[in-house]
Design goal:
The protein is globular and about 60 Å long. Helix 1 packs parallel to helix 2, helix 3 packs across helix 4 and helix 4 crosses helix 5. The protein is of the alpha/beta class. It is built from ten helices and ten strands. Strand 3, helix 1 and strand 4 form a beta-alpha-beta unit. The protein has a seven-stranded mixed beta sheet with strand order 1-2-3-4-5-7-10, with helices on both faces. A three-stranded mixed beta sheet has the order 6-8-9. It starts with a strand and ends in a 13-residue tail after the last helix. The chain folds into two domains: 199 residues, 2-enoyl-CoA Hydratase, Chain A, domain 1 (Alpha-Beta Complex), CATH 3.90.226.10; 47 residues, Orthogonal Bundle (Lyase 2-enoyl-coa Hydratase, Chain  A, domain 2), CATH 1.10.12.10. Helix content is 46%, strand content 17%.
């Protein structure tokens, strides 16, 4: 395992084919500032070919408590737009980077922290996790992609309620609402996320690319266009040599069949 502290607020550990990206501003509950956002973008844009999946988590008791309001500066409308677009590019690098990303959530997943978590492809929460979007009570609006990504997880009505009323979801409510796909006991989110990422890293690269880049775009298309895109992606994926080898292994009985899992 290689360890690389990129700065005082971000580190990267390499676990085989999985990169563990950790926010390390625990004294600030891993609140996001512009420097950290730009470093996150750099990490995900520069992910090397040996890395097949990534996990993102936060040091200490919280995943991420959102925007570091102590560093918030006054901006005119144009400056505010460019600032928001900078965050969009960084979180797009997470969602549409080279590798699938699993977020290991615990403690606060609030504001910009929820925007970051929603850019991951799979979210694992432990029982200490809670979710909130306090921007509404602070007189501001989400600017890091939350208005696009969060409703795709929980729906427009739930996000509207959160921002109008300040509603906070606990871990159990959050799993039922769709914030996370997995809920584990307190302290176990990172282990589960790494387990999932190691499994994802064994998939055919073309399939992982299709799921992280093509499937979200199909969801935005009309049914007719989506079916055509699906056909094209299916043809590309199954034509890859690795896909042919895997299908041959299955047909020859050298690959395991789907079994009911005792552990969720």
């Amino acid at each position: 395992m290689a360890h690389s502290p990129l700065s005082d607020d971000l580190s990267v550990d390499i676990h085989g084919a999985v990169a563990l990206v950790c926010l390390t501003r625990s004294a600030k509950r891993n609140a996001l500032n512009d420097g950290l956002i730009m470093r996150l973008r750099q990490v995900f844009e520069d992910m090397g070919p040996d890395i097949k999946a990534a996990v993102i988590t936060g040091e200490g008791s919280h995943f991420c408590a959102g925007l570091d309001l102590s560093e918030l500066s006054e901006r005119d409308a144009v400056e505010g737009m460019h600032h928001s677009r900078m965050w969009h590019k960084a979180l797009d690098a997470v969602q549409f980077g080279r590798v699938p990303v699993v977020a290991a959530l615990h403690g606060a997943v609030v504001g910009g922290g929820l925007e970051l978590a929603s850019a991951a492809h799979i979210r694992v929460a432990d029982e200490s996790t809670f979710y909130a979007l306090p921007e509404g009570s602070r007189g501001i609006f989400v600017g890091g992609g939350g208005s696009v990504r969060v409703p795709r997880l929980i729906g427009v009505a739930r996000m509207t309620d959160m921002m109008l009323t300040g509603r906070v979801y606990n871990a159990q409510e959050g799993e039922r609402a769709g914030f996370a796909q997995y809920l584990v006991p307190t302290g176990q989110a990172l282990d589960k996320a790494l387990e999932l990422a190691q499994k994802i890293a064994q998939n055919a690269p073309a399939t992982n690319y299709a799921l992280t880049h093509v499937l979200p775009r199909i969801a935005d298309q009309s049914a007719d266009h989506g079916l055509m895109t699906e056909s094209l992606m299916a043809a590309i994926a199954q034509s890859a040599p690795e896909a042919k080898d895997r299908m041959r292994a299955f047909l020859e009985g050298r690959a395991g069949k789907v079994q009911k899992s005792a552990v969720q």
